[in-house]
Amino acid sequence: MHATPLYCAESARRDTAESLAARFALPLVKQRPDSGYWLELGPQRLELVTTGKHGAVYAEFVEGAAKHRREQGGGRGQPVAKAVGLKGAKDLPRIVDATAGLGGDSFVLATLGCEVTMLERSPVAAALLFDALERASVHPDTMDIAARMTLIHANAINWLAEQAELPWEQRPEVVFVDPMFPDTDKKSAAAKKGMQAFQHVIGDDMDSAALLETAITAATGRVVVKRPQRGVPIEGVKPSVVLDGKSTRFDLYVIKALRPQDFVGRD
Ligand SMILES: C[S@@+](CC[C@H](N)C(=O)[O-])C[C@H]1O[C@@H](n2cnc3c(N)ncnc32)[C@H](O)[C@@H]1O
To answer: Do the beta carbons of residue 205 and residue 186 sit within 8 Å?
Structure first.
C-alpha cells in the first residue's frame, strides 16, 4: 500500500504539518494531490480527503456525535461498558484499545472514567486520532476525558507481546479489539461514504487471529472483541461469553475461564 501524502495550504499551520509528517512518517507534499487519497491539514483540523467521491474523514471528540454521546450517552449501562466489565465495578479497569481507529470506542470508555491506552498501527488513522486528541485536550468540555487517553503509534501484536512479559500487576486488565474484517456485515458499515475512504486507505486487518492470541496472553482480566451482530468471530479461540446487541456483538474472552479446549485448531 502506498504512503498517504500530507498536504497543508495554511501557512500558519506549516510547522504543525511538518511535525505530523515527521511523527507519523507521512510524505509532506507541496501541492494538493489531484487524485487518490491524502491527508489535508486545514485551519481547524486534519482530514482524510479524496477528489469528489466521499466526504472528508476525521476523528472528532468535541463536536457532533461525540458531543451527543458525552451528553446523552448510556453511562455504565451501555453495551460497550458492560462488555469491558464496568457495570457494578468498584474500580475502573486499565484498558488497552488495541485497534483504536478514529478513537470512537476509546472515547466512550474514557468518558466513563477509564484510563485508555490507544494502539494504532496505521499512520493515517494515528495522525487523525492524534489531531483529534490535541483539539480535545484544549477544549474545556473534553480536556479531562482527553487526559485519560494515551495514543501509541504501534502494531498492537508487538506491543502486547511485550506487555505479556511484565509482572501481572503492570499488565492491562482489559484489551479491546475491533478489527476491520473482510466480511459482508462490514461492507454494509462501509457503505457509509466516509468509512469507504478510511477502509480503502487502511485495508482489512488480516492478522486478527494473531492479535487475539497475543491480547489473551497480555490481558489479566478479559479480551473484548467488537463485531457486527452477524459477523463471524475471530478464528482460533472460542469466546467465553457473547453479548448480543442490536447491530453490534461483543465476544468476551474471560482469561480465568479460558481452557485449553477453547483454543480451536492448535496443537
Ligand atoms: C475498525 S477500526 C477500529 C474502530 C474503532 N474501534 C473506533 O471506534 O473508531 C480498526 C483499526 O484497527 C487498526 N489495527 C488493526 N490491527 C492492528 C494492530 N495489530 N495494531 C494496531 N492497530 C491495528 C486498523 O489500522 C484500524 O484503524
So the answer is: no
Domains of the chain, first to last: 6-50 (3.40.1630), 64-262 (3.40.50.150)
CA distance 77 to 226: 17
Atom of ligand 1 nearest to the CA of 104: 8
**220 neighbors 173 (Cβ within 8 angstroms):** yes
Q: Please give the distance, rounded to the nearest whole angstrom, from the Cα atom of residue 6 to the centre of ligand 1.
A: 20
pLDDT digits (tens, 9 = 90+) for 92-123: 999 999 999 999 999 999 999 999 999 999 99
- 120 annotated as ligand-binding: yes
CB of 157 closer than 6 A to ligand 1? Answer: yes
Query: Could you tell me if 149 and 143 are in contact, meaning their C-beta atoms sit under 8 angstroms apart?
Result: no
116 φ/ψ angles, rounded to the nearest 5 degrees = -125, 125
Beta-carbon contacts of residue 138 (< 8 Å; ≥ 6 apart): none
CA angle 72, 77, 82 (to 5 degrees): 130
Ligand 1 centroid–CA 179 distance in Å is: 5
Judge whether 49 and 56 are in contact, CB under 8 Å: yes
Q: Vertex 220, ends 160 and 99: CA angle to 5°? A: 40
Using an 8 Å Cβ cutoff, are 131 and 20 in contact? yes
- Residue closest via CA to ligand 1's atom 10 equals 179
Kindly report which listed range (2-6, 25-29, 39-43, 87-91) carries the lowest average pLDDT score. 87-91
